[in-house]
From TrEMBL:
Domain Alpha-D-phosphohexomutase C-terminal: 395-454
Sequence similarity: Belongs to the phosphohexose mutase family.
Bilayer-crossing regions: none
Cofactors (names): Mg(2+)
Gene3D superfamilies recorded: Alpha-D-Glucose-1,6-Bisphosphate, subunit A, domain 3, Alpha-D-phosphohexomutase, C-terminal domain
Protein name: Phosphoglucosamine mutase
Entry's Gene Ontology molecular function annotations: phosphoglucosamine mutase activity
Domain Alpha-D-phosphohexomutase alpha/beta/alpha: 8-142, 164-263, 270-376
Organism of provenance: Flavobacterium agricola
Gene name of the record: glmM
Length: 462
């Protein structure tokens, strides 16, 4: 069992020992640190925080602990209860709140939960702010409110509907054109809040919905990370139902994957590629994804005469570079769409609506659409090292070895070759180097990964 503290929040498994797992005391301590930081940062008396959760089994318990800890600090809470990560992100500025907390462990299995922390813009905290919250949590220096100064709780269960409305109001979303096509779509909501909000959006766009695992009871029927090996049921059902395609989201609805009409994976990396293709065709501009995402986004961006740039891994880094380059769309290759026209956060609803509009404008199947894009294949591996091995020295030697290639050291070491690339990243918590490669064929991607791993092992003498 595990407790992971990072600048973006605290994540862990339910139960067990204090400090080793996400126990009630750990939830209270971390909520206290966040609330204390908000009071110090904004330096005002009346602080307001939006809170929402996904449908995992531990949600109500963690939700009540966190919410009433903030009340105990004298902070007012807007309680969205069952919600999604992008819904909370949208709600924070609409409520003129000072921050937000999403209670979700995202794609992690049901024994996990987490506190994801937002600033007053509804965006993830900077590294500096996250470090300060970790320091406050470690110090346990909290001052709680006296009885007359306790915070209040205001329930608002309208935000999922409001989120759908915000998406439908986007200029590039054409619900009327979608409705004319009479699409039939299978939705796997992994028995979380996506099982409510995605069908709601689809039905308002005139789409026939076949629901699979859409009861928000937190009993995940499969590993909730939307990868091919976990999605056999929906791949089969799309074919059986003769559906146009399938939609899969993770428990907090910030990641999005499609299943093509032939029951094959569209590819998480290609969710962003397809949506960006449509957006760029209507509003030319720049794009951003992280360094471990597919080169296909660069190709599509350049096809539309835009400029592509890659950020360090992590949503906050993608958003920062998007703002710096005025990117009109961006995201991460794990199926995360960031469309600033609505907000700076990964949002599966935005991805679904834009993808449907894109498809409505075409006369081809989803499988044919996927085949029309540049073909790349990824290999994801890791090497476990001993604590005595200097990982930084290994990365330094790999950089020197390939100094004549195009290299970035913004986040680990990324080496861009003519037709493929490799990205080496070290873990911050364990002696591991992660190796991501991409090439025009799976065999080439796997071979490049093996070549790089052999070189690392030689350097490390293992």
């Amino acid at each position: 069992m595990t407790l992971i503290k990072s600048i973006s929040g605290i994540r862990g498994t339910i139960g067990g020992q204090i400090g080793d797992n996400l126990t009630p005391l750990d939830a209270v301590k971390f909520a206290s640190a966040y609330g204390t930081w908000l009071k110090n940062y904004h330096n005002k008396k009346n602080i307001k925080v939006v809170i929402g959760r996904d449908a995992r089994i531990s949600g109500p318990m963690i939700h009540n602990l966190v919410m009433h800890t903030l009340v105990g600090l004298g902070i007012d809470v807007i309680d969205l209860d069952l919600s999604t990560t992008p819904t909370v992100e949208i709600a924070v500025p609409l409520e003129n709140a000072d921050g937000g907390i999403i209670l979700t462990a995202s794609h992690n299995p049901k024994q996990w939960n987490a506190l994801k922390l937002l600033n007053e813009k509804g965006e993830f905290l900077s590294g500096k702010d996250g470090e300060e919250i970790l320091r406050l949590a470690e110090a346990e220096s909290f001052t709680y409110a006296e009885v007359d100064d306790l915070g209040t709780v205001t329930k608002n269960d309208a935000y999922m509907d409001m989120h759908v409305d915000e998406v439908l109001n986007l200029p590039l979303v054409d619900a009327e054109a979608v409705a004319k096509r009479k699409f039939k779509v299978v939705v796997d909501g992994v028995n979380s809040s996506g099982g409510i909000i995605i069908p709601k959006l689809l039905k308002q766009m005139g789409v026939e919905v076949v629901e699979l695992y859409c009861t928000p009871n937190g009993d995940f029927p499969h590993n909730p990370e939307p990868l091919k090996e976990h999605l056999g049921d929906i791949c089969k059902l799309v074919v059986e139902e003769k559906a146009d395609f399938g939609i899969v989201v993770d428990p907090d609805v910030d990641r999005l994957a499609f299943i093509s009409n032939d029951g094959e994976m569209f590819g998480e990396e290609y969710t962003l590629v397809a949506v960006a293709d449509y957006v760029l065709s209507k509003t030319p501009g720049n794009t951003v994804s992280n360094m471990s995402s597919s080169r296909a986004l660069r190709d599509i961006t350049e096809k539309h005469n835009g400029t592509y740039q890659a950020s360090a891994v992590g949503e906050v880094n993608v958003v920062e570079l998007m703002k710096a380059t005025n990117a009109i769309i961006g995201g991460e290759g794990n199926g995360g769409i960031i469309y600033p026209e609505i907000h700076y956060g990964r949002d599966a609803l935005v991805g679904v609506a834009l993808f449907l509009t894109h498809l409505a404008n075409l006369e081809i199947s989803v499988a044919d659409l996927r085949a029309s894009y540049p073909q790349y294949f990824m290999s994801k591996n890791k090497i476990e090292l001993t604590p005595a091995i200097d990982v930084d020295e290994i990365l330094k030697q790999m950089t020197e070895k390939y100094k004549n290639e195009q290299i970035s050291t913004v986040d680990g070491v990324k080496i861009d070759f003519a037709t493929n690339w490799v990205h080496l990243r070290k873990s911050n918590t364990e002696p591991i180097i992660r190796i991501y490669t991409e090439a025009p064929t799976q065999a080439e991607a796997d071979a490049l990964a093996q070549q790089i791993m052999n070189q690392i092992k030689t350097i490390a003498s293992i």
